[in-house]
Amino acid sequence: MNILILGSGGREHAFAWKMAQSPLCDTLFVAPGNAGTAQVATNLPIAFTNFSAVAKAIRDHKIDLLIVGPEEPLVKGIVDFLRNDPKLTNLRIVGPDAKGAQLEGSKDFSKQFMLRYGIPTAASQTFTAETLQEGLTHLETHALPVVLKADGLAAGKGVIIAETAVTAQGALREMLEEQKFGEAGSKVVVEQFLRGIELSVFVLTDGENYKILPEAKDYKRIGEDDTGPNTGGMGAVSPVVFANKTFLKKVEDKVVKPTLDGLKQEGIRYQGFIFVGLMKVNGEPYVIEYNARMGDPETEVVLPRIQTDFVELMVATADGELEKLDVQVSPQTAVTTVLVSGGYPGTYETGQVISELDRLDDVMAFHAGTLAKNGDVVTNGGRVLAITAQANSLENAVRKSQEAARMVQFDGKQYRRDIGVDLIRYAD
């Protein structure tokens, strides 16, 4: 079959790399893609938010299966748009419609959803510009630290953890009065701070049945020991040593099942991935957030561990036949180290030539922000490459990923040297 993946990051390169291995895949396209996806697929110069251009490409290339990688087109309703096209009635799509994507597109919606269906999460209240004064008063006596979240999509930057009431009040004013995050911050969720350890669980559902994919832990802050500003993700590890069978059973019973039951009760036929961001607090799972797609860089450690034909999994998801398949998972540990541009997550330069990629052995370099230019691969984003290694132990996977991260060169390269190290200590 002919397959199209929407997106241009490391997640989409990982999808393309995995799907290209399937005998079911005839021709593979990625829109817009990057220098890495070009090695395993044909890149199409189309913006994934240009729904008409995407529909035309699907018709022109006789696409049978569409995988929507990023959240923005999902939240903006690309699935609804394509399903309403009378010429695309046979198109299989993996990704929720706009109603389902609200799980990620609106923090307020997801909070209310969790409350309705008894899904464990931090206590919260939502405020708007009209209720700003009420919010400021609420923050005067709120336990500290306190978490403020912009309601809509803010490119991973819409979460502020305030250590003092004054800081929290200033942040609330910035978001609601000064529109720091634009429309995304027209509502702000003020939330209890949970103390625990984070991880992510990934669910694949066809609207009726579900499969739980390998869990992962990512590293969001730019600096070692989780210091400095948040980023889109500096690395990830799968499996997660503190997520034993007992805990994962709690996640399934207390989070996954009620989430899927809730979606059905809301009249949402959700076909795609649900990323469940969790905090493990005293052995219990609490939901921090939902995403309506796979995470990045978590995909780069989850997909290498999946041994089942990935195209077969995607077709079963779109056809409502997931119950017919088993997800086979490698017992190996996967670790990815993300190489980023100098200055990221602030201002950074692009166009730096990347060298030594051809020297990498027994690791996978998933391209995130890269471009093929004049015979070179050059940097084209904040996050540039995700270097994934697999091994029979966490220590060896960390070592292999870090050695490869040191080997690849480009001006201004930054990366964290402690990805997975805390989990080695945890295991000890």
Largest sheet: 5 strands, parallel
CATH class term of the largest domain: Alpha Beta
CATH architecture of the largest domain: 2-Layer Sandwich
Number of domains: 3
Q: What integer value in Å does the Rg equal?
A: 21 Å
Shape: globular
Q: What is the CATH superfamily of the largest domain?
A: ATP-grasp fold, B domain
* Strand content range: 25-35%
Can you give the mean pLDDT?
96
Query: According to CATH, what is the topology of the largest domain?
Result: D-amino Acid Aminotransferase, Chain A, domain 1
Helicity range of the residues?
A: 25-40%
Unreliable segments of 5+ consecutive residues: none
Instruction: Enumerate the strands of the largest sheet in spatial order, edge to edge or round the barrel.
Output: 3-2-1-4-5
Number of strands: 23
Which structural class do the helices and strands define? alpha+beta
How many distinct helices? 13
Domain ATP-grasp: 111-319
GO molecular function: ATP binding; metal ion binding; phosphoribosylamine-glycine ligase activity
Catalytic activity: 5-phospho-beta-D-ribosylamine + glycine + ATP = N(1)-(5-phospho-beta-D-ribosyl)glycinamide + ADP + phosphate + H(+)
Pfam families: GARS_A, GARS_C, GARS_N
Describe the structure.
The protein has three domains: 2-84, Rossmann fold (3-Layer(aba) Sandwich); 124-192, 2-Layer Sandwich (Dna Ligase, domain 1), CATH 3.30.1490.20; 197-427, 2-Layer Sandwich (D-amino Acid Aminotransferase, Chain A, domain 1). The chain is built from 13 helices and 23 strands. It has helices at 10-19, 51-60, 71-75, 78-83, 98-105, 107-116, 132-140, 165-176, 245-265, 299-302, 310-319, 394-407, 421-427; strands spanning 2-7, 27-32, 42-43, 65-68, 92-94, 124-128, 146-150, 159-162, 187-192, 197-205, 210-212, 217-218, 221-223, 227-230, 235-238, 272-281, 284-291, 333-340, 353-354, 364-367, 370-373, 376-379, 383-391. β16 (272-281) and β17 form a beta hairpin. It is globular and about 60 Å long.
